[in-house]
Amino acid sequence: MSTKKIPLRQCIGCGEMKSKKEMIRVLKTAQQDILIDATGRKNGRGAYICPSKECLKKAVKSKGLERSFKMAIPKEVYEALEKEMEELGF
After folding, report:
1. Distance of alpha carbon 90 from alpha carbon 86, whole angstroms
2. Going residue by residue through the chain (90 aa), what tens digit of pLDDT does each one get?
3. 17 DSSP assignment
4. Nearest-5° angle of CA 76, CA 42, CA 84?
5. C-alpha separations of 35 from 2, 4, 59 in Å
6. Rounded distance between C-alpha atoms, residue 18 and residue 26, angstroms
7. Which helix or strand (DSSP H or E) is residue 54 part of?
8. Which has the closest alpha carbon to 82: 62, 56, 46?
9. Closest by CA position to 45, among listed 62, 70, 8
């Protein structure tokens, strides 16, 4: 029996490689909108972040989303991410 390969993604905050299911996907759509993809299946460019406030703070400080999406990220996007994490219980 072959074992199923687990997809790994790198956190834009801490830089750790973790399982795709453990992380939150942030998505840039074709219309340049930034949103959170809870399903992980929407079309667009994705970046992953650990579900912790420390990683979010590191991502803001190191401009992780800006580098991933090659565009300026408004402050409201980071606030929405923080609110989403609170709703999910992280």
Report:
1. 6
2. 678 888 999 999 999 999 999 998 999 999 988 888 888 889 999 999 998 889 999 999 999 999 999 998 888 888 888 888 888 776
3. E
4. 35
5. 36, 30, 16
6. 15
7. helix 53-62
8. 56
9. 70
